[in-house]
Amino acid sequence: MIALPKRRRWTWALAAALALVVVKPDPTTAQSVEDGTSPSKFHWRSSAQIIAPRAGDGNGYSALKDPSIVHVDGEYHVFMTSVGAEGWHMAYTHFTDWLQASAAPIVDLKQSGIGPGYRAAPQVFYFAPQKLWYMVYQSGPPVYSTTATIGDPSSWSAPKPLFDQAPDIIKAATGQEAWLDFWVICDEASCYLFNTDDHGSLFRSRTSIQQFPAGFSDTRRVMTGPRDDIFEASMHYRLAGTNTYLTLVEAIGPKGRYFRAWTSDRLDGDWRLLAGSPSNSFAGSDNVVFDGEDWSQGVSHGELVRSGYDQTLTIDPCQPLQFLYQGLEPHAPDTAYIDLPYRLGLLTATGPNPVSALCPASP
């Protein structure tokens, strides 16, 4: 399957309006990544849907999915894949408080320089060396657009390719040009582009900070395994105050989609498994508790709420993790992929977990 976006859901408990349920603590403990004392499992609470298609808004969306979220100057900016009669494209919304999310206007990005056609799975960050916002997304191959003003959805530039052609290793993995869900993260010297292929591989390409967004090369397969274990929607973050990076990859389990997790001390280093099964996942059906109706089974394509917004993709392990994800409403088993009713929700981590154990202030 070539570059078709994915969606997953799990909503955030929205202050008093969406009463939050405390997840029952898991009595199991195991050796932590560093000191052998932290709980080995993640636990989450989920709100109801917070961003979903709305009748009468003029957009005609049937689903919203694949969110990328940026918090800057007190405002949340959410970019997402939109699904409608014309297929897949992208949309934007913004708000200052999660309580406003469900009513915030959703703007179609076709009217910007991004233009019409297949566009999906955005990732948005500020590239500080150039003082520009970048959106990396799929249009078949990986492309990017830029703007100086993140709050102006009409200001995004026309898409430009990140590669002249698919690297040979991408084509060799499946016999076809299968790559999707592109993600850029940078350290002090280099920028890395990660992608999956829906066939059990995670790839990494590299360029220098000075060359970005040009110069991506040295594409390597950095993880491989069964298709269902390394499926799609990889995310990569730096943990603030540490020398640790976190990688998340969406997998397919018996109760729907879930995320596996790894850590490394370098973006080009070896990845150590942190949470790797449906019963011990980063986020999935077995460790999410809903307030009210369980509106979605599984956790799919989403993004952690970052503590910053630049190209280092930093999250704070000392604060409870929040995960804007795509969820799937109940639907007929023979529903076509394009008609699947994806909506967005927010997960909030409850209690200590293997990431919070990496907080430099942890005892």
UniProtKB/TrEMBL annotation:
Its EC number is 3.2.1.55. Residues 1-30 form the signal peptide. InterPro entries: GH62_arabinosidase (IPR005193), Glyco_hydro_beta-prop_sf (IPR023296). It catalyses: Hydrolysis of terminal non-reducing alpha-L-arabinofuranoside residues in alpha-L-arabinosides. CDD domains: GH62 (cd08987). Keywords: Glycosidase, Hydrolase, Secreted, Signal. Pfam families: Glyco_hydro_62. One of its GO terms (cellular component) is extracellular region. It is an enzyme of class 3 (hydrolase). GO terms for molecular function: alpha-L-arabinofuranosidase activity. Belongs to the glycosyl hydrolase 62 family. Involved in the degradation of xylan and is a key enzyme in the complete degradation of the plant cell wall. It has a specific arabinofuranose-debranching activity on xylan from gramineae. Acts synergistically with the xylanases and binds specifically to xylan. From small arabinoxylo-oligosides (ranging from arabinoxylotriose to arabinoxylohexaose), it liberates arabinose and, after prolonged incubation, the purified enzyme exhibits some xylanolytic activity as well. This is Alpha-L-arabinofuranosidase.
